[in-house]
Write a structure and sequence with these properties.
The chain is of the alpha+beta class. It has 15 helices and 13 strands. The longest helix is centred in the last third of the chain and has 24 residues.
């Protein structure tokens, strides 16, 4: 929608999100001291001014403002935002873990100067280019699969990566996206990955665990995997948080989608270096479907992203796919996405993973029936 940026709350919320993420870089949103990071101080100043203009009570301090972000849904803030920019019950900081939420990172992807978007898509584009330049097309999908399947790496894992010839062209990139793990994940001398998504679990004061992955949390209590004992594992590295959300999470959906399509006899190619997509399907009639998997909770923000990205393949039909549970959780998801993306997204279609599998199944079955009829004739 063209009037998105005409709402005064849009640049304000962008600034607040940058401030929250800057503070999160300190590893603990409870532990910070003066001077505050510049973006955090700027966000506090702007939200205070907005409250005063609107006759609302402003936060008393930065700690008080962070309490807002944990305890007050953004829909209740005294700021003006476009319709559907915020859904009910969306916060910037998770109250249990004090980590920035999925919604916070989705807003960090929004805007013309998003450093998070540049980080994520710049990395992916660079990896594809390095793989192509080295004439080693297997390198790019190997890199993508690494980020999906191993978001946590110990010293032994780093050695395996160093000796993997397929990763030679992108080895420097691998070193740039894994960071030494924060002690906030350490519990009784060990780091514990999630058995479902392989990301590190955050230990809670009550002895439980918290998983940052929305898909895991909707399935119930976290399932702790095999702990990485610090003394034995050496330095443990965790993939950068934005990449875990926008590459690792959707990548798991990609692998699940591949398995479902192969079970139906549909051949797929994951992360082809020559195509800007996650999955390429070449149908028996030679027609090509290129599929990019997204995992956004907010469809308006996903639509905004589509306006900036557009459809990037020219070989066939382009689709963006979201996990079915996202659409179930948000009535009108696809309609909202289309409302915010239709003007410039180049005819890009959005489907759930379930709907994509059904559509491909119908297409393959129709062709099989036609061929059967021709054989009988």
């Amino acid at each position: 929608m063209r009037d998105w940026d005409s709402h005064a709350g849009v640049p304000l919320l962008r600034g607040v999100v940058r401030g929250v993420l800057d503070l999160a870089e300190l590893d603990d949103l409870h532990a910070f001291r003066l001077p505050y990071p510049p973006e955090a101080q700027r966000a506090l100043n702007e939200i205070t001014l907005c409250c005063l203009v609107r006759g609302a009570r402003p936060p008393r301090s930065l700690p008080d403002f962070l309490s807002w972000c944990r305890e007050r849904p953004v829909e209740d803030w005294p700021i003006e935002l476009p319709p559907d920019a915020v859904a009910p019950g969306q916060y910037l900081i998770d109250d249990e873990s004090s980590h920035p939420t999925t919604f916070c990172y989705e807003w960090a992807m929004e805007g013309p100067d998003s450093s998070v978007r540049e980080e994520v898509y710049g990395l992916i584009q660079t990896a594809a280019e390095l793989s192509a330049q080295a004439a080693l097309p297997e390198s790019y999908p190997a890199f993508r699969r690494l980020l999906v399947e191993q978001p946590v790496i110990d010293q032994a894992g780093l050695f395996r990566i160093a000796t993997d010839q397929f990763l030679d062209p992108v080895r420097d990139l691998v070193g740039s996206v894994f960071r030494q793990t924060s002690d906030t994940y350490l519990c009784h001398g060990a780091y514990t990955p999630c058995r479902r998504c392989a990301m590190l679990l955050t230990p809670m004061p009550d002895g439980g665990w918290w998983c940052e992955n929305d898909a895991c949390r909707r399935l119930g209590a976290p399932l702790p995997g095999k702990p990485l004992v610090a003394e034995q594992a050496g330095v443990v590295h965790h993939l950068d948080r934005a990449l875990r959300q926008f590459v690792t999470g959707p990548g798991r959906v990609v692998l699940e989608l591949e398995a479902r399509l192969r079970a139906l006899g549909i051949e797929t190619e994951l992360w082809p270096v020559r195509e800007a997509c996650d999955v390429m399907v070449v149908l028996p009639d030679g027609h090509v479907w290129t599929i990019e998997v997204k995992d956004h909770a907010n469809p308006a923000l996903l639509g905004r992203l589509a306006e900036r990205e557009r459809a990037r393949s020219s070989r066939g039909e382009d689709f963006w796919v979201v996990p079915n549970y996202r659409v179930e959780q948000c009535p009108g998801y696809v309609a909202t996405f289309e409302r915010y993306s239709s003007e410039n997204a180049g005819g890009l279609r959005l489907l759930t993973d379930d709907d994509l599998v059904k559509a491909l199944t119908r297409r393959v079955n129709r062709r099989a029936r036609r061929q059967g009829g021709e054989n009988v004739a």
